[in-house]
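Hey, can you fold this one?
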Amino acid sequence: MVVAIGRCSYGPHRLLRSTTIYVSGLHFHVVGEGVVRVRSQRAERVYDKENYIDFRMRLLGEPGEGPSLLSPGIHSFPFKLGLPLGLPSTFLGKHGWVQYYCKAALREPGGLTHKNQQVFIVMNPIDLNLEPPILAQPARQEIEQRVGVSCVSGGPVFCRVSLDRGGYVPGETIGISATVSNRSKVTMKSTKASLTETIQYLCRGKVLASETRELASVSRGKIRPGESEEWLNEQMYVPPLPPTNLRGCHLINVLYHVYFVISPKSLDKEMKLQIPIVLATYPLRPEGAPVGTAPSKRGAHYPSTLPIFRPWLDDKAFEIQE
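Sure. Predicted structure:
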């Protein structure tokens, strides 16, 4: 079951009995929690936890009353539960998770308890139209770095990169423009732009582990000494991703960046520009358009559904740092 923030979750809770039974109470418990478990460099297990929901209700039986008789058949116990605003979305990661589930316990007068548990998924969407307006503006970075080991082969390489804006949703494309000027005597073997997702796991405010995966990339070939290269609104597709809004969670961060990397042919280290972006659930509307207007970003192919989980969590392509 998927529940959106700001809406109510409705029962009923159904109970199937094949025989007559006396019960002293039917208890319902809703739990939302974030958990991080990381093995440190000393092989110690580090654990942290925080709670978002801890709601209990009694669906049958009152304290001090005698047991109730349940006849064979299906019994329904209606309820209504409004989720508080600001809950982080459901998330499953390699070293931690945000989970929501409800538990039911049927107690017999003799002390025997029958238990059941059901997970439900919470989605807290991010609407780009409600985010700071700067996300609708271009994002820019620039760098100049000296390449080469001596005054003979050394020289500066200048790079300026801009994105058409700072916020996107899956199905849209990121427009990348760049200028690379190679004033050194070293050939740049390639330039590459990539979209990455980084998941950080924290314990007591410290990042204990992180994993990074490349989600999409665009690349070009070499730039010889004295030459320049221009990227003019190159398009990089944002693939379908699980909705991720972990605002309100202090144990897990999910960050998205566009990296622009220039790789020299020499032993010099790569030049790397990092531009943070926001990946949201609802796209920007045209300026001045009323609520409900369809998005109009050119080249967008919005998926009809988004995945709930990340299928690559067991992929060895992750870079894990502890």
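Confidence is low (pLDDT under 50) at residues 312-322. Let me know if you want another pass with a different chain boundary.
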